[in-house]
Request: fold
Amino acid sequence: MALSVEASLVAFKVWECVLCGFRYDEAAGDPDGGVAPGTRWEDVPEDWVCPECGARKSEFDMTVVG
Reply:
């Protein structure tokens, strides 16, 4: 998946599972879960689940990591 110029200029974000604390890092993706590095959260498939606890994508919250 190629990133647009605008998307590549926006810092990658980290999302955290509210159930187990697993963090989805947009820069790293989840290759074991079929999500390529550089995949923005909004582009992660709705059927993706947390590799730690099986939570659905809708159960994640935004976490700002400095």
